[in-house]
Specification:
With about 300 residues, the chain is of the alpha/beta class. It has 15 helices and 7 strands. The protein is globular and about 75 Å long.
């Protein structure tokens, strides 16, 4: 085929997009995840990159597979694990990974406690993750320079090799607090050089956390009455100022405890029959007895 004919060929990005069905996954991100605008924007950008790469391959343009290893940084409860699962779905739909699955691990799953223990542990995890996404939570704990007998460096070296040699069959996502991840990358330049995408997950605002609380309650077939909504807003504002606050994770814990109090309230009045509304409604009473209100 002549160069002129080759230049006349066309590719339909819209058709590739429709065939992949990634619009469904991205739509779910918008519907299911409150806030996280910069995170969602970056996911769309990565999806666009991969769509264009598919189009280039379709026209016979030789190209190196893009590096897709990522770093997710942010405080606990900001959706990093959830987004990793959605990212795996996008990558699978676009045929950049063979399997739509995420293997989630921490240091203990990779690092052994004695000589000869780390390599088989790490390789077994990689074997399970191959073809999909490996999500390493609190990845900075792999590196402990203060301990000369620590075997984390061995796990890092194995990971580095696999990330380079098998980047077309495995995507590694490292996650953790931003400041600690920055220190980890400065101490491990080989790892930093293999991470193409750094995505920071912002904390949620009070309004976003309230919306999250409503979505969580709805998913469990509960709802707040009007006074319960006001109480939950107050609960969120107070909880955000207290120690060990973990964004959406703390809100879920708060709802679970409110459900417990609701159940005990209803059981205490068990002589009266209950309708569906009573069994679904979390009231201000169920929320305000929390010790969060007593720590002001």
């Amino acid at each position: 085929m002549s160069a002129a004919l080759e230049d006349d060929r066309r590719v339909d990005l819209g058709a590739i997009y429709a065939e992949s069905n990634i619009g469904e996954t991205i739509g779910q991100l918008d519907n299911d995840l409150v806030g996280l605008v910069p995170v969602k924007t970056r996911i769309r950008e990565i999806a666009a990159l991969l769509l264009v790469e598919s189009a280039r391959r379709g026209l016979g343009i030789q190209t190196e597979p893009p590096s897709l290893h990522m770093s997710f940084t942010g405080n606990p409860g900001t959706g990093k694990t959830t987004v990793a699962r959605r990212m795996a779905d996008v990558l699978h739909r676009l045929k950049y990974i063979r399997r739509n699955h995420v293997v989630t691990v921490s240091r203990d799953d990779l690092v052994g406690q004695y000589i000869g223990h780390t390599a088989p542990k790490t390789k077994e995890v990689l074997k399970k993750a191959m073809g999909g996404v490996l999500f390493i939570d609190e990845a900075y704990y792999l590196y402990r320079p203060e301990n000369e007998r620590d075997y984390g460096q061995e796990a890092i070296e194995i990971l580095l090799q696999i990330m380079e040699d098998n980047r077309d069959d495995l995507v590694v996502i490292l996650a953790g607090y931003k400041d600690r991840m920055d220190t980890f990358f400065r101490s491990n330049p080989g790892m930093a050089s293999r991470i193409a995408h750094h995505i920071d997950f912002p904390d949620y605002s009070a309004d976003e956390l309230f919306r999250i609380s409503e979505l969580m309650a709805t998913s469990m077939h509960y709802r707040f009455d009007e006074a319960g909504q006001a109480a939950m807003r107050e609960y969120i504002a107070l909880r955000m100022t207290q120690p060990r606050f973990s964004n959406a994770r703390s809100i879920r814990n708060g709802i679970d405890r409110a459900r417990l109090r609701m159940a005990n309230r209803l059981f205490a009045g068990r002589d009266q029959p209950l309708d569906r509304v009573a069994l679904e409604t979390i009231t201000a009473e169920d929320i305000r007895v929390s010790r969060v209100f007593n720590q002001q």
